[in-house]
């Protein structure tokens, strides 16, 4: 079932590795921006009136940096304009440095039932170096307010000087805090970010070192009872992120807000990344879409295979056939033959073997059009 994504682009401070659309100096625009976001939903309401959405994901930026009343307002607008499933999954991303009791109470009143918290590392010195505004203590305070709730913690690998012991401490804190879900992903040094200089100077761990940290982290998570259901995502049984599963199953989703992207009606479309342009467009009654393209069949097939093979459930031959009318092993005969040694097939499903999932990019490259 389709999902809704809302982008809240404000942050207190820009992290050194961040290349998301996030503005550390524009918090004063939050009220005007949220009014535009509500209006954008209105502009889409008629065309989406027959769709039932199963998930809402409020991401950013730092959604928890703005007044929680705006988040409440956004959820009210969603419930007014769109149909939600009986038991929707509603997630908000939170930075532990921006949370208090009142915010969490307001989120819960708004219907939010899943919280995604950016821990990143349990070493304060590394948090400072990343430009994060919070400490480990802030994380512990934040999770103490979420006792018994469904929350996820982000853990980052590949930081300067990061050791296995650092990873052990971080995972111990995340698991010990009661997280039901952990996203453990490798830092990608993007050109134009301050951390890219460290990368160019060879100061960050290389690919093999990150792989070792990942394997170690994975073994600890397994020991703690977490299951890997996607290359970077681990959870206690039954706590998979439905919103993300929908992405990996190539399900439809609609994005609202600056730079938000969507996949609907077989088309991928993206809003402008420019905040002024976004607001001007909406205030003039237009959708702020700057890219809009139909996904051609060849690309659609590749997307289906590539997204499915990132997950532990792998690709379903039956679902592929239902979508495209053919057998994926015939459509990708050469690539399939080349990579068969890394795959395992059980019944209808083929997946990348557990030990090769981390390097899935090197396997998936063979399937690219
Ligand atoms: S909190 Fe997130 S979105 Fe904001 S600057 Fe840091 S990494 Fe980027």
Polypeptide structure, described:
The strands form 3 sheets. The chain has a 9-stranded mixed β-sheet, sandwiched between helices. A 3-stranded antiparallel β-sheet has the order 10-11-12, with no helix packed on it. Helix 1 packs parallel to helix 2 and helix 2 runs parallel beside helix 3. Helices cover 39% and strands 22% of the residues. The chain has 2 domains: 245 residues, TIM Barrel; 71 residues, Orthogonal Bundle (Arc Repressor Mutant, subunit A). The protein is α/β, with parallel strands linked by helices and 369 residues long. Iron/sulfur cluster (SF4) binds next to loops. The site of iron/sulfur cluster has 10 residues, from loops.
Task: Summarize it.
This protein has 15 helices and 15 strands. It has 369 residues and is an alpha/beta fold. It has a nine-stranded mixed sheet with strand order 7-8-6-5-4-3-2-1-9, sandwiched between helices. A three-stranded antiparallel sheet has the order 10-11-12, with no helix packed on it. A three-stranded antiparallel sheet has the order 13-15-14.
Strand order of the largest sheet: 7-8-6-5-4-3-2-1-9
Largest sheet entry:
9 strands, mixed
Uncertain parts: none
Distance between the termini: 27 Å
List the total number of helices: 15
- The CATH homologous superfamily of the largest domain: Aldolase class I
Strand percentage lies at 15-25%
Annotated CATH topology of the largest domain: TIM Barrel
Structural class: alpha/beta
* Ligand types: iron/sulfur cluster
Shape: globular
Radius of gyration: 21 Å
User: Any idea of the CATH class of the largest domain?
Assistant: Alpha Beta
């Amino acid at each position: 079932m389709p999902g809704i994504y809302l982008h809240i682009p404000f942050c207190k401070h820009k992290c050194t590795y961040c290349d998301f659309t996030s503005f550390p100096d524009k918090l004063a625009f939050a009220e005007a921006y949220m009014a535009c976001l509500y209006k954008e939903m209105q502009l889409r309401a008629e065309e989406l009136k027959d769709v039932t959405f199963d998930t809402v994901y409020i991401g950013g930026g730092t959604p928890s940096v703005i007044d929680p009343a705006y988040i409440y307002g956004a959820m009210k607008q969603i419930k007014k304009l769109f149909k939600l499933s009986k038991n929707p999954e509603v997630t908000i991303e939170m930075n532990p440095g921006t949370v208090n009791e009142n915010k969490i109470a307001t989120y819960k009143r708004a219907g939010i039932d899943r919280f995604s918290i950016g821990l990143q590392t349990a070493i304060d010195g590394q948090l400072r170096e990343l430009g994060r505004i919070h400490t480990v203590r802030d994380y512990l305070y934040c999770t103490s307010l979420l006792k018994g709730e469904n929350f996820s913690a982000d853990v980052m690998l590949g930081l300067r000087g990061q050791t296995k012991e650092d990873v052990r401490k971080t995972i111990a804190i995340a698991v010990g805090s009661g997280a039901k879900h952990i996203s453990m992903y490798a830092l990608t040094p993007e050109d134009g970010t301050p951390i890219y200089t460290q990368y160019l100077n060879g100061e960050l761990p290389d690919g093999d070192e990150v792989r070792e940290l990942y394997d170690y982290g994975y073994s600890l998570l397994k020991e703690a009872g977490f299951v890997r259901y996607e290359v970077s995502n681990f959870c206690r049984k039954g706590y998979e992120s439905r919103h993300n599963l929908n992405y990996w199953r190539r399900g439809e989703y609609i994005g609202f807000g600056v730079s938000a992207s969507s996949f609907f009606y077989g088309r991928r479309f993206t809003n402008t990344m420019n905040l002024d342009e976004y607001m001007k467009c909406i205030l003039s009654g237009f959708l702020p879409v700057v890219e809009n393209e139909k996904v051609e069949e060849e690309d659609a097939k590749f997307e289906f295979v590539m997204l499915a093979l990132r997950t532990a459930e792998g690709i379903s031959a039956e679902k592929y056939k239902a979508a495209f009318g053919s057998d994926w092993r015939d459509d990708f005969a050469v690539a399939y033959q080349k990579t068969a040694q890394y795959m395992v097939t059980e019944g209808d499903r083929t997946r990348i073997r557990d030990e090769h999932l981390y390097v899935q990019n090197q396997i998936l490259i063979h399937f690219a059009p």
